[in-house]
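Thread: Newbie trying to understand structure tokens

Hi all, I'm a second-year student working on a class project, and my supervisor (Dr. K.) asked me to get a predicted structure for one chain before our next meeting. I've only ever worked with sequences, so writing a 3D structure as a token string is new to me. If someone could post the tokens and maybe explain what I'm looking at, I'd be very grateful. Here's the chain:
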Amino acid sequence: MSYIIYPKLNIFLKIIGHDGSYHQLCSRFVLAKGALYDEMELSKSQSFTLKGDFGCDMEENLIFKAKCALKAYLLAHAKEAERLESLGVEVQKSIPKGAGLGGGSANAGVFLRAVNEFLALGLKENELLAIARDIGADVSFFASGESSANVSGRGEQIEPFIESPLFYEIYTPPIFCDSTKVYQRYGTLIKERCINYSNPPQEWLSSQSAHLLSLGIPKEEMNDLFSPAIALYPALKDIASELGSEWYFSGSGSSFFRLRA
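---
Reply by user tm_fold:
Sure, no problem. This is what the structure looks like when written as tokens:
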């Protein structure tokens, strides 16, 4: 069976505080359904196999981590788990890495939903979200199956947001943004009191994404990670200037996006 995996965009992203070693966020996540996507193929296999141009060892891949987390959950709930070891997974990668589009998380989240269907595991959505929570920050959104949601916490709190489908243009420059380093830089700017934690205005949470993108809000105000990203990768500032005010910054970068005309 074949599954299409779309990237996500952050319409807005605010860092609202800190909990232990993790920053807490409040963001609008949307699926960017269009020409950019990964494609996952599931099949039966004699042993678990994972193929794709991931750029990491299998043990570090979020799909593999999702398989392990799913197996642990099934075993803990006295459900049959051995069929997971007879899965063949192959992904045709197109979503770029280090781009703020959630490519790895998207693979893991869709994998959970896909395997639940492919193997007829019968897991409910709340169970899939419970499994997704500890795999990676954005995995829960993709496991939810939502197209638009207000997301908070570490990314595990999903509040579905109903809005009409939108179409976006995405530009990803040849710059790999390390999300861990961007968040670390944000933490440094907080300690140096160059920036402050902030909540999004309440009206952002209830406003349609198209409306928010039409207001001309500066990039650094819409996305708290824009400033630390350009501090680490100065070329992004020039790119942002060349693109213009209608282009916004997704996640920890390096992708910019705008509504398609």
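A couple of things are worth pointing out once you decode it. The chain has ten helices and eleven strands. The chain has two domains: 2-160, 173-259. Feel free to ask follow-ups in this thread.
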